[in-house]
Amino acid sequence: MAVTLEQPARARLVTPEGRERALPVVLRYSAEDPLAIQMTFPSQASLDGAEVTWVFARQLLEDGLVAPTGSGDVHIWPCGRARTVLEFHSHQGLALVQFDKIVLRRFLVRSYAVVPAGGEGAQIDLDEGLSRLLGGV
């Protein structure tokens, strides 16, 4: 059975007017998908009123804590010494979310206790992944 790590966190959604709105977020990491992390935002944070989960590379978060990084839908950069900004792009628009850097660092440290950096390949079952991709063939 694969280990799954969950950590509740507080974030701040930056509104188009430049105001910050507190937001509960759940950070997840699973040994079954060792390269990725998940961030789940509550329904009140989305335009359509549905809970939203973003999945992106764990390494992207690690890199974004120290320097601007990202391409495509997710961009991450440090904001001063104590905060990190995540920018999410979708067909519905853009969301800017700030976290205390220490919260994200703590989550990453806990995820590396589940699967160490560089050990992700040992956790991936290529046969199972190909089977799922090909519809159980």
Supply the CATH superfamily name of the domain at 4-63 and 99-119. Sporulation-specific cell division protein SsgB
What's the number of extended β-strand segments?
8
What does the average pLDDT come to? 88
| Range of helix content | 10-25%
Uncertain stretches: none
Q: Treating each run of at least 4 consecutive H or I residues as one helix, how many helices?
A: 4
The fraction of residues assigned to DSSP E strands is 35-45%
Q: Which class of the domain at 4-63 and 99-119 in CATH terms?
A: Mainly Beta
Query: How many strands, what sense, and barrel or not for the largest sheet?
Result: 8 strands, antiparallel
In CATH, the topology of the domain at 4-63 and 99-119 is named: Transcriptional Co-activator pc4, Chain A
What does the radius of gyration come to? 16 Å
Spatial order of the strands forming the largest sheet: 4-3-2-1-8-7-6-5
Name given to the CATH architecture of the domain at 4-63 and 99-119: Roll
**Helical/strand content category:** alpha+beta
The sequence of SSEs as H and E is EEEEHEEEEHHH
* Termini Cα gap: 23 Å
Shape: globular
Q: Any overview of this molecule?
A:
This protein is of the alpha+beta class and 137 residues long. It has a domain of 81 residues: Sporulation-specific cell division protein SsgB (Transcriptional Co-activator pc4, Chain A), CATH 2.30.31. An 8-stranded antiparallel sheet has the order 4-3-2-1-8-7-6-5, with helices on both faces. Strand 6 and strand 7 form a beta hairpin.
